[in-house]
Amino acid sequence: FRAQHERVATYKLFEEGLSTILASGNISNYPTLCAKVTASFSVLSDTINTVKTSFITNDDTQQQQPNRRDIANFISQLQKSEGEKLNLTAALHLERLRLRNSQLEKEMSLSDDGSGSASADRTVALLKDGIRTLEQKIGSVVEKINEVLEELRCVAADESEE
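Given the sequence above, the corresponding structure tokens read:
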């Protein structure tokens, strides 16, 4: 569960980093942010996969432990959902960056001669709609993640009672 808490903290840093970049307008910092976050997620994923493997095999005999396969399956579901969430989060970030650029372009065209305003309005509206859709998809994935985590908590509680 500790690795999952670290994963949540990493997402928070990712979001805060994007907000800072959008506020400052220095988009050139985004690749550095992505590299840092990707490295963190990679380490966390490797850690969680190692835990999953430990539930499938017995280190001494390398034999499967069928009573632990359910835990490994929950961890696999968690990893899959987290991968989906990361992909959706990256797509959301790109849409937010595109929206900011479109809004800046719209402001510049208004200050120039006002032409292209209707086209810019449509682009901004489409990007905002895309952002809402991605946020809803992320919300659904987060619900799946929370359901899997609850299942894992129940298994851990059952194990501690035995």
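The two ends are 20 Å apart (CA to CA). Try to locate this feature in the token string yourself.
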